[in-house]
Write a sequence for this structure.
C-alpha cells in the first residue's frame, strides 16, 4: 500500500507547493507555469499530443525491431568463432560509446532532406542496438557446460547445438536486452528528432521544440509529461513481457 | 572383454599443471567400479577420459563403446530448464536422429523405469532434487548404454534419497548390466554400489589402492549391517586416509 501511497503523497505535496509558489510569487507563466496551467495545456492539446506520442512510440518500436534484427544476426555471427568476435566487438563497443547526437548530422545527410524520419529510425536503432547485441552474445555463450558436454557425447551437429542448446539458453538474456533496448529506443527517438527533425511525421520532440520556440512553456511541460508517461508504460509492458517469457521458459 | 580402459594416462591443464596420473583403469563388461579419492584428485577428469569427452595429455584411452553407447550423469542434474522431463530424456535419441514420436515414447518408458512416470510433463524447476536426478538418470539410460559414467551423482541429495537412488541404480544395472563407473567421495556409498572400489591419491591422482567387494549384487536388504560391508568400508577408508596423508 505504501508503495502507492508514499509517492502519491509526495507528488501531491510537490504539486501543491508548486501551485502555491507560482501564484504567491507571481512567476511569469513562460518561466514556470503552474501545475494547473500545465493541466490546461494538456487538455487543450490532448489530441495533438496523443498523435505525436503515437508517432514517437511507433518510431521507437520500428527502431527496436531494426536493432533486434541486426544485433541478433551480428551476435550469432560473433558466436560462431572467436576471431569474428574479436574482430566485431571493438566496433560494436565504439558505436555504443559514441554519443548518438554526435553522429546524427551524418545520418541527416545520408537520409536526405526528404526523409528525415529515416535518419531518426536509424539513430534510435543505433542506441537500441548494443543491449540486444551484448545480451544475445552473452546468452549464446551461457549454456551449461555440462549440457554442452552432453551434446558432445551424443555427437550433436552444429545446427542441433544452436537450435536445441544455444538459442534456448540465450532466451532470458535476449529478452532482458530487449527490455533495456526498448527504453533506450524511446530516448534515441526523441534525441534524434531534436537533431534531425521529422518531416511530416512530427513526434513529441518536435512538439517540445515548437512549444519552447513560442515560449509556450506549459505546453512544453505537457509534452514532457506525456513522454514520461509513455516511456513508463513501455517499461512496465516490457517488464511484464520479460516475466511472462521467463515463466514460459522455466515452466513456472 | 573390457568396455573402456585407461593406460598410463596423464592429464595436465594449461596454467593449472598436472591434474591426473599416470593412472591405469580397466572397466570390464557389466562391472561396477567406484572411484574414490580426495577432492581435486582428478576423479572427474578420469571420467571424462572414459567418456571420450577429453583426450589425455599422455597415455592411451581405449573405448569399446561407440557413439550413443556411453552415457554420463553429472553432479548436477543438468536438465534443460526450457524442456519438460520427457523432452529432456528424449534429447539423446532426438540428437541421434530418432523420430520424435518413438523418442518420446522411449523417454516415457525410461522415466517410468526410474519411478517418474507421473512427472513426464513437469519442467525441471518443478522437480525436487531427487526427482531431477532420477530424470537425469533416465536420460542416461534411454539409449541403453554399454558404459554408464556417474560423476558424484547423489552428492547434493539427503541421505535417505541417496540410499534409495543407490538401490534404484543397482536394480537398473541388474536389468541390462551396463558397465558402471561411479565417482564419489562417500566410502560407504562406494562399497554399497560397486563390485570394485578404486582409491585415488591426492592430485595429480594415481592409484592408491583397490578393493573387491565380496558380496552378491544387487545388494540384499541390511547389507550395510553385514561384517563384509563393515570390513570392506574400513579397508577402503584406511586406503583413502593414507592416500590423503601422503599429500598433507
Amino acid at each position: 500500500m505504501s508503495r502507492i501511497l508514499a509517492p502519491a503523497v509526495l507528488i501531491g505535496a510537490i504539486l501543491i507547493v508548486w501551485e502555491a509558489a507560482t501564484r504567491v510569487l507571481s512567476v511569469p507563466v513562460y518561466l514556470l507555469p503552474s501545475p494547473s496551467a500545465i493541466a490546461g495545456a494538456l487538455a487543450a492539446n490532448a489530441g495533438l499530443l496523443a498523435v505525436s506520442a503515437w508517432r514517437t512510440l511507433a518510431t521507437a518500436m520500428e527502431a527496436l525491431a531494426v536493432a533486434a534484427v541486426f544485433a541478433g544476426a551480428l551476435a550469432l555471427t560473433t558466436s560462431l568463432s572467436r576471431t569474428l568476435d574479436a574482430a566485431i566487438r571493438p566496433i560494436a563497443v565504439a558505436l555504443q560509446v559514441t554519443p548518438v547526437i554526435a553522429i546524427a548530422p551524418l545520418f541527416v545527410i545520408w537520409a536526405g532532406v526528404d526523409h528525415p524520419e529515416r535518419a531518426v529510425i536509424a539513430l534510435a536503432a543505433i542506441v537500441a542496438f548494443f543491449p540486444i547485441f551484448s545480451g544475445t552474445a552473452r546468452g549464446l555463450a551461457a549454456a551449461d557446460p555440462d549440457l554442452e558436454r552432453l551434446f558432445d557425447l551424443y555427437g550433436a551437429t552444429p545446427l542441433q547445438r544452436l537450435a536445441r542448446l544455444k538459442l534456448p539458453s540465450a532466451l532470458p538474456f535476449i529478452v532482458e536486452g530487449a527490455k533495456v533496448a526498448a527504453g533506450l529506443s524511446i530516448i534515441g527517438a526523441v534525441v534524434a528528432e531534436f537533431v534531425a527533425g521529422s518531416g511530416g511525421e512530427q513526434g513529441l520532440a518536435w512538439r517540445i521544440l515548437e512549444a519552447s520556440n513560442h515560449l509556450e512553456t506549459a505546453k512544453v511541460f505537457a509534452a514532457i509529461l506525456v513522454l514520461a508517461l509513455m516511456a513508463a508504460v513501455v517499461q512496465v509492458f516490457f517488464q511484464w513481457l520479460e516475466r511472462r517469457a521467463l515463466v514460459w521458459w522455466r515452466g513456472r | 572383454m573390457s568396455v573402456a580402459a585407461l593406460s598410463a594416462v596423464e592429464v595436465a591443464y594449461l596454467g593449472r599443471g598436472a591434474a591426473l596420473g599416470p593412472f591405469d583403469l580397466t572397466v570390464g563388461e557389466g562391472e561396477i567400479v567406484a572411484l574414490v579419492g580426495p577432492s581435486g584428485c582428478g576423479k572427474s577428469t578420469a571420467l571424462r577420459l572414459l567418456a571420450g569427452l577429453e583426450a589425455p595429455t599422455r597415455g592411451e584411452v581405449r573405448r569399446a563403446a561407440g557413439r550413443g553407447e556411453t552415457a554420463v550423469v553429472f553432479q548436477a542434474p543438468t536438465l534443460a530448464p526450457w524442456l519438460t522431463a520427457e523432452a529432456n530424456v528424449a534429447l539423446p535419441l532426438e540428437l541421434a536422429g530418432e523420430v520424435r514420436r518413438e523418442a518420446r515414447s522411449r523417454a516415457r518408458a525410461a522415466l517410468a523405469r526410474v519411478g517418474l512416470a507421473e512427472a513426464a510433463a513437469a519442467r525441471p524447476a518443478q522437480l525436487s532434487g531427487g526427482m531431477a536426478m532420477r530424470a537425469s538418470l533416465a536420460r542416461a539410460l534411454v539409449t541403453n548404454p554399454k558404459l554408464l559414467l556417474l560423476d558424484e551423482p547423489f552428492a547434493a541429495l539427503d541421505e535417505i534419497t541417496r540410499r534409495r537412488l543407490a538401490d534404484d541404480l543397482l536394480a537398473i544395472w541388474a536389468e541390462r548390466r551396463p558397465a558402471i563407473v561411479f565417482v564419489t567421495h562417500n566410502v560407504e556409498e562406494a562399497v554399497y554400489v560397486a563390485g570394485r572400489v578404486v582409491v585415488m591419491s591426492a592430485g595429480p591422482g594415481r592409484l592408491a589402492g583397490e578393493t573387491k567387494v565380496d558380496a552378491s549384487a544387487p545388494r540384499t536388504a541390511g547389507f550395510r549391517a553385514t561384517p563384509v560391508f563393515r570390513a570392506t568400508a574400513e579397508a577402503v577408508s584406511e586406503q583413502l586416509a593414507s592416500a590423503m596423508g601422503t599429500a598433507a
Notes: Chain A has a mean pLDDT of 92. Residues 45-250 of chain A form a domain with the MetI-like fold fold (CATH 1.10.3720.10). Chain A has one domain: 45-250.
